[in-house]
Amino acid sequence: EMCKDEYVMLMTWKKTAAGEIIYNKCPPNATGSASRRCLLNAHGVAYWGVPSFARCISHEYRYLHLSLREHLAKGQRMLAGEGMSQVVRSLLELMARRTYYSGDLLFSVEILRNVTDTFKRATYVPSPDDVQRFFQVVSYMVDSENRDKWEDAQQVSPGSVHLMKVVEDFIHLVGDALKAFQSSLVVTDNLVISIQREPVSAVSSDINFPMKGRRGMKDWARHSEDKLFIPKSVLSLSSSEMDESSYFVIGAILYRTLGLILPPPRSPLAVTSRVLTVTVRPPTKPTEPLISVELSHMLNGTSHPQCVTWDYSKADAGSGNWDTESCQTLETLPAHTKCLCSHLSTYAVLAQLPKDLAMDPSGTPSVPLMIGCAVSCMALLTLLVIYATFWRFIKSERSIILLNFCVSILASNVLILVGQSHMLSKGVCTMTAAFLHFFFLSSFCWVLTEAWQSYLAVIGRIRTRLVRKRFLCLGWGLPALVVAVSVGFTRTKGYGTASYCWLSLEGGLLYAFVGPAAVIVLVNMLIGIIVFNKLMSRDGISDKSKKQRAG
C-alpha cells in the first residue's frame, strides 16, 4: 500500500510506502526538516499521518537565539544581564502571536534555560517586569492549545520536563534576591506561582498555597479545590547544615494545563488533575509524611485515583516518570482527592480513564447525537422544499422568519456533524466552534423576531419593507456582532478545545452564548405575555384578523 502525493502546509509530500517516513524541507519561514509517516488503518488502507515540525525552527526564534549569544559574548556582567531582559521581552512578543512550530517550543525552552543560567552567572537581579514576562512566556508555552505541538515535540526531546526544571531554577534565582520574610506572587492564565524567603532559624508560619483570596488571583485558581499545606516543622535542617545567614527559598507552582503536555503514562492511566509543584532550597528531608495535598479532578468517570509525585530519574513503562510510592491516597471524593506525601516534589493524581476514552483519546463520535442531527437535517430540508414548492401561495412575513429560522437550525446541525465526524485540525475546530456560536445565537434571535412580528401584528403597525430589514438585522446582524466581539476580545481562545468543537467551559467565553440566549428567552416571555393579554382583551377578541396575523 502507498500514500499518494499530497500538497499540505506549503509542502509536497511524495508517494511513500506504508510504514515509511518521508522528510521534507520546513516551510519557507523556518529552517530544518519536517517529517511525515505513511500509516495503515485497520482495513489495510494507507493514509498520511500528521506532519511533524519538531525539527523546524522559525527564522525569528533563530535570530533571537543569535541575539542571546551576542549578549553572552559581552564581557561585562551587567550588560549580559540587561541583554537577557531584552531577550525575554522579545520572546514574549513572539509567543504572544501564537504562530510557532513544535520545534520553536523546544527552542524556547533552551532560550529560557540560557537566560536563567546567564542571570545566575551575571549576578543580575531580574526586575519584577522581567519575572512577570518570564512566567508569561511559560504560560503561553504550556497552554492547552499547544497540546498537539508538545506531543509532536516529545518525538525529539521531553521539552516539557526540561521546562519544569527551568521554572524551578528561575524561582530560586528570584527567591535569592528577596529579603527575609518577603514573598512574591505571579499569576497568569495558566500558572500561579508563589516565591518566599524564610530564615532557616525562624520559619514564620506553615505554608498554605495557593492563597485564593489574594488580589489578582484568576477565577480558575480561586474556585478550584487544589491546596497545598506544609507544616513549618518540615522546613528544618540539621545543626551541621545551619548557620545564622542560612535561608530557605520556597517556591510553589500550580500548573493549570501541564498534565496535558507531560509525557503520558501508559493507557488507561492518565493525569486527571492539575499539577502542583513545591520546591525548597536547600532541600529538606521530612522523616514522616506531613505534606498535605488536595487536587481537584479534571475528568469525570475516572476510577482508581492515586496520588503520585514526579521523579526525574524514573522512566517506568507503566506510570512514566510518576512515582506512586511517595504519597498516600487518604480520601477520594467526587470533586477532589486528598494526599499525604513524604517529600517535596511535583504532585498530581493518576487515574484510569473510562473505557471509551482509553480506547480513543481523541473522543468517539456520539452515535445518538449524529443520528438525531441527521434526522433533524432531513426534516428541515423537507420543510424547505415544501415551502419552496408552494411559496407563491404562502408568502408572508411569518414564512420568511420561519425559513430563516430553519436555515439557522440546519446550519447548526451540519456543523455539529462536522465537529463529530473525525479529529479536526485546530484551525478547522476553531472555525466550527465560531460558526456554531453564530448559528445557535441566530436560532434564538429568529425566535425573538417571530415574537416581535406577533406583537406588531397585534398592535397593527406592520410596514413590510421597513420591518423586514429590521427582522434581518435582528436575526443575522445581532448574532454576527456578538460573535465578532467575542472573537476579537478572546482572539479565538476558547473556541474549540481538545475534546470538542464548541465554546470552552473555562475562561467565561460560554457566557457570550448563555447571556444573550437567556436575555432573549426572558424578552420572549415578556412579549408573549403582552400579546396574550392583547388577544384576550375585549378589543383583541373582536378583531379576528389580528389573531390570525399574530399566529
UniProtKB/TrEMBL annotation:
Membrane topology of the entry: Multi-pass membrane protein
Chief location of this protein within or outside the cell: membrane
One family name in Pfam for this protein: GAIN
Domain G-protein coupled receptors family 2 profile: 1-60, 365-551
Domain of life: Eukaryota
SUPFAM superfamilies: Family A G protein-coupled receptor-like
Protein name: Adhesion G protein-coupled receptor B2
Species of provenance: Chelydra serpentina (Snapping turtle)
Organism ancestry: Eukaryota, Metazoa, Chordata, Craniata, Vertebrata
